[in-house]
Amino acid sequence: xxxxxxxxxxxxxxxxxxxxxxxxxxxxxxxxxxxxxxxxxxxxxxxxxxxxxxxxxxxxxxxxxxxxxxxxxxxxxxxxxxxxxxxxxxxxxxxxxxxxxxxxxxxxxxxxxxxxxxxxxxxxxxxxxxxxxxxxxxxxxxxxxxxxxxxxxxxxxxxxxxxxxxxxxxxxxxxxxxxxxxxxxxxxxxxxxxxxxxxxxxxxxxxxxxxxxxxxxxxxxxxxxxxxxxxxxxxxxxxxxxxxxxxxxxxxxxxxxxxxxxxxxxxxxxxxxxxxxxxxxxxxxxxxxxxxxxxxxxxxxxxxxxxxxxxxxxx
Length: 315
Fold this sequence. Notes:
52% of the residues are buried. Helix 1 (12-23) packs across helix 2 (41-54) and helix 1 (12-23) packs parallel to helix 12. The chain has one domain (2-314): Inosine-uridine Nucleoside N-ribohydrolase, Chain A (Alpha-Beta Complex). Strands 3-2-1-4-5-6-9-7-8 form a 9-stranded mixed β-sheet, sandwiched between helices. By secondary structure, the chain is an alpha/beta fold. The longest helix has 15 residues, at 220-234. Helix content is 37%, strand content 17%.
């Protein structure tokens, strides 16, 4: 069973990814660190606790992490997750306390205690991961891997047509803290990045039958997913929006779901029009050797992914 740490900024798609991970028999969630991203860290921390209480998994510790990006103010997400950050579902306020340790320390201590065993799944900006690597650089080699929702690599029309950052070709998590993404990509840790090319593909949309199954399920987490879909549909978006972060969790549960290719990737930290853009160098000749080489998601078996989500969340 794969041991994972989840770094997250709930956000509705983060919440469903947490549910998928916590309910999967194939991964063990050792802890959750929260970060500012979709919302300020106090809200993302509270939403993580709400989600775990909904599925009765309060045994998983939640540690509050960084409240702002490394070198810039926290931007406002142009895509609203609602006043509660959870698609206006307004789950009951949590009674479970946050862990006493900081989110960065949760990452460092957990990885050091289990060298080579822990996968860090990053669903939000990479601020906590970067700070953990700055505090204890050795964990780059102690991590089994980092799997992250990060970037957009120009592999298909969804890469930029569905850009989530606040520049035309950026993805939100990298846009929020490009300095952190650059540091993590350059850390030497093994990285699989699931970009918008794969995570926002329209083939991820739920079918009408799947939505009806979620609506009529006796499981509150399935009903939550249905309500979140209705929220995004009502705003003119498609249902893939609530499943973006679940792709990273699914990539750990079943690595065969997503095919990757190697790319040298740089992160733009200065451009007025390109801040947060991930520039992928796929060239056979004259490639920039100074850029870090990572695994970039190129395609996915969306049917099997949706089957996995439905089986795990809706039963």
